[in-house]
Amino acid sequence: MSKQQQYRIKVNGQEETITAEPRELLIYTLREHLNLTGPHIGCETSHCGACTVTMNRKSVKACTVFIAQADGAEITTIEGLGDPDVLHPLQEAFREHHGLQCGYCTPGMITRAARLLEENPDPTDEDIRFGMAGNLCRCTGYQNIVKSIKAAARTMNETREAAE
Amino acid sequence: MNDMSPDRAERSEKLNGLGCSRKRVEDARFTQGKGNYVDDIKLDGMLSGDFVRSPYAHAKVVNISTEKALEVPGVLAVLTATDLEPLNLHWMPTLAGDKQMVLADGKVLFQGQEVAFVVATDRFAAADGVEAVDVEYEELPVLTDPFEALKSDIVLREDLEKGADGAHGPRKHHNHIFTWEAGDKDATEQVLSHSDVVAEEMVYYHRTHPCPLETCGCVASMDKVNGKLTLWGTFQAPHAIRTVVSLISGIEEHNIRIVSPDIGGGFGNKVGAYPGYVCSVVASIVTGKPVKWIEDRMDNLMATAFARDYWMQGKIAATKEGKITGLWCHTTADHGGFDACADPSKFPAGFMSICTGSYDIPTAYLAVDGVYTNKAPGGVAYRCSFRVTEAAYFVERMMEVLAIELNMDAAELRRINFIRKDQFPYQSALGWEYDSGDYHAAWDKALAAVDYAGLRREQAERIEAFKAGHTRKLLGIGLTHFTEIVGAGPVKNCDILGLGMFDSCEIRIHPTGSALARIGAISQGQGHATTFAQILASEIGLPAESITVEQGDTDTAPYGLGTYGSRSTPVSGAATALAGRKIRAKAQMIAAYLLEVHDDDVEFDVDRFVVKGAPERFKTMKEIAFAAYNQAVPGIEPGLEAVSYYDPPNMTYPFGAYICVMEIDVDTGEHDIRQFYALDDCGTRINPMIIEGQVHGGLTEALAIAMGQEIAYDDMGNVKTGTLMDFFLPTVCETPHYTTDYTTTPSPHHPIGAKGVGESPNVGGVPAFSNAVHDAFRAFGLRQSHMPHDQWRVWKIANDLGLHN
After folding, report:
1. Residues B513 and B364 grouped into a single domain
2. What's the domain count of chain B?
3. pLDDT grade, residue B5 (50/70/90)?
4. A1 contacts B733? CB cut-off 8 A
5. Could you say which of A34, B21, B450, B487 would form a disulfide bridge with B652 (CB–CB 3.0 to 4.6 Å)?
6. Which residue of chain B has the CA closest to A86?
7. C-alpha–C-alpha distance, residues A16 and A2, integer Å
8. Model pTM score
């Protein structure tokens, strides 16, 4: 056990001060200190992606980021993507196209997909498959996840075009 | 006066009942990160538990020193077997009639076995405490091979009385658990010795693991003021867990509440009772605080509930025209250190006796020997109804081997041996009564869909091109026609720890015409809240949107045996339909009273009761619901509720035809799945969207198992695949596109004709992938090669066949 220190992070737009050991993992900070239980723990070795959040505009596996590494970072979790009245298009699309079953991978999956669509707003199936390879799902066989992401991309592009 | 009724189809559509692809009601919370899984539960003062696990596969535990651990900041207690012994909780019964150490009692039998339980203020402190526990071991010789174990002088289970019977009869050796037989041994041996052709092969279904994305875990909270224990956890069978907890702890069952919150996938991994549950309960009693235990991934892969590990020696006999005359199978089943299979009590090898598959095989014999080794206990049904996957893999491999022996096309061999439609209900040689099927129709549809003849022509051309040196890729066509046996099951022969495997549903109709239904099953992603409301909508004529389905809380849900073995729809789904019919029967009497006619003079019509011959005179179910609460109907109690406990008269027998077309690179062992066609017949289809999703997911698990997923041990009993780095879970990149299709042959004995589907794609998928690999090399002399067919093993097949020369 080492000494506790103070860290500042901005999560879903909100400034937070965290007192924790530097070895504390970001997923633990989010889930236990900030009560953001959307991101889940599946492996703690960066393989499954259930803990995926966006940190400084990059997708990271929060299970293998120390809070000390996240000091000063801007973080978005699934809780920051939409709200019950205005869902994110990905949240709509996953429901519409049956892109989830047990729901355990879903927050990480959608958070990663949101970042993917920021990086590449008009991905091909191949782009989606490559871009989502860090997120495992045991239930769906991915076919409907790819379909959901593609549909959300279409919706988001149509909305963007309509606004321009 | 009622308005004119809209037409029936329109009214029916509004119910969102049986047969429609209703969107899931679960998804709103899951997509927003608002699921409630066990690790999301937080209680005041909650502590965290973690295990010290054995690094050895077989060793004496000489001493456990906990002093240093207790000095670690935040560590409050360290439990060992010595602490549990006065409570008689250092061992616990398994679902298979054996017993299992909760914490190491003088020795360990597998790597990763639970040795001590550290309780601390948080996960990090608990992990520090685990590191500080000092355990002295004395290594013992290790047995990892079940055949060797049956010959060895090394005794694994000194706790079992020498020479005494086990839970399933006589034990032949100190490492032997049981022998289980089905069919007629003498008659089968007679057939084998008198048939034109006999093909013999050893088919190994390797050890693997269900590996749901959420690991197992629980939160135990003993309220000492009112004497009530609440246990939240990843339980696929919460009521059974309640009864088990009561039996082993002595706490009366009414003082135990088991809650399965949202579960992040189960696939059989979450059926059993694990040491973590017992230790958490004890720790909560000892500390007076809630205690959470959540496995990490390595714990999960090393210690909780593996699947398969069946060595199936087979002989299949036929006439020279290919008509099968007999099937013989002897299985050596590696159960690990304790027999902790999750099977109905009378079936220590599960439903392995469905191994005659889809074929009309007049004579058959099966024997299974269970064996102890220094591996983790388990043997659960990984997306499977109790060893059906093993049975299907066995028979579908034997069909391919027989086709080779006969020099016949494997599709034609299947066709001439299928049980015919007119033979149902069909009595199998190993004792099952298949309920319904039309295998020829499904097979023909599948072969036509992929242009089977065209594929075989292409394959022949490919072989020529390969031989001529124009390509290094071979083409494999993997065929499977599987028959499942699911929906356990009839109480007369199916029980777990003496609990009959019925299931249940309780319905309350509210005055304003909405409803609450509670079921004995529990979803782990199957979408019960969506589909069970659909079953009810069609039965009681209220829209699915107005029906809430609750599950998983033993204080409120009616008793049921849970969800595994594709039993939710066949058993709990049947109970739901029948409870709905009880509601309807009472509604009929209320409607008749309101319409001032005799009960027999009204009939149900989608969402209402109408006066026969006068459809303009009706009462909707919504009106009837209100009347049930505000009208004094003579001779009828107020309210509108029903409970049904359903004891199925038979199992259900879903089936399917799968075809996998695979390209294999002979030089690298890599594969590319060009096409996968899956036709499923699960009887009446409740929600096609969900069925398709289940098929996609099950096929992907089958892909993993067939092509790379394995729990592997070295000779010292070290687990070589304890993380997701080594244990293969397919990503979206390795997963092919699937084409799904269906035929519909309702079950004649199920109230709505549904058979269950969740496990079919795993049962049928594994042989389809595996047969594709074998088929690619058939022309070069390959008969049998064990899974998983990872690149190295496929490369080795090619190398052994001399294809690299």
Report:
1. no
2. 3
3. low
4. no
5. B487
6. B32
7. 21
8. 0.97
Task: Tell me if A141 and B262 make a contact (CB, 8 A cut-off).
Answer: no
- Dihedral of the alpha carbons of A137, A141, A145, A146, in degrees to the nearest 10: 120
What domains, with CATH codes, occur in chain A? 5-80 (3.10.20.30), 89-163 (1.10.150.120)
Chain A residues in contact with B689 by the CB 8 A cut-off are: 98
Residue of A77, A95, A144 with shortest CB distance to B33: A77
CA-nearest residue to A94 within chain B is: B31
Please confirm whether the linkage preceding A84 is cis (ω < 30° from 0). Answer: no
State the average pLDDT over residues A76-101: 96
Average pLDDT over residues B253-262: 97
The separation between CA B345 and the C-alpha centre of its own chain, rounded to angstroms, equals 16
Q: Which of A98, A136, A144 is closest, CB to CB, to B729?
A: A136
- What's the burial of B378, exposed, middle or buried (CB within 10 Å: 0-12/13-18/19+)? buried
d(Cα B238, Cα B230) in Å, to the nearest integer? Answer: 12
**B190 vs B62: CA distance, rounded Å:** 54
Q: Which band of pLDDT confidence, cut at 50, 70 and 90, is reported for residue A1?
A: low
Query: 3-class secondary structure for B219-234?
Result: EEEEECCCCEEEEEEC
Query: Is B156 part of a structural domain of the chain?
Result: no
Identify the residue among B21, B31, B302 best suited for mutation to test binding to A, counting A beta carbons within 10 A and taking the highest.
B31
Q: What is the ipTM of this complex?
A: 0.98
Is the CB of B696 less than 8 angstroms away from the CB of A79? no
* B313 a catalytic residue: no
Which whole-number Å values give the CA distances from B9 to A137, B17, B513, in the listed order? 38, 12, 21
CB contact under 8 A, A79 and B33: yes
CA distance B357 to B364: 11
Find, among B502, B619, B623, the residue nearest to B570 by Cα. B502
Residues B217 and B704: their CA atoms lie apart, in Å, by: 24
| DSSP letter assigned to residue B648 | -
End position of a domain, from candidates B646, B665, B690: B646
Which tens digit of pLDDT belongs to each residue from B684-699? Answer: 999 999 999 999 999 9
Taking the C-alpha atoms of residue B18 and residue A159, their distance in angstroms, rounded to an integer, is 35
B135, B240: one domain:
yes
Distance from CA of A160 to the nearest CA of B (A): 23
Answer yes or no: do A40 and B72 touch at CB < 8 A. no
Q: Quick check: is B145 in a domain?
A: no
Give backbone dihedrals phi and psi of B380, rounded to 5 degrees, phi first: -80, 165
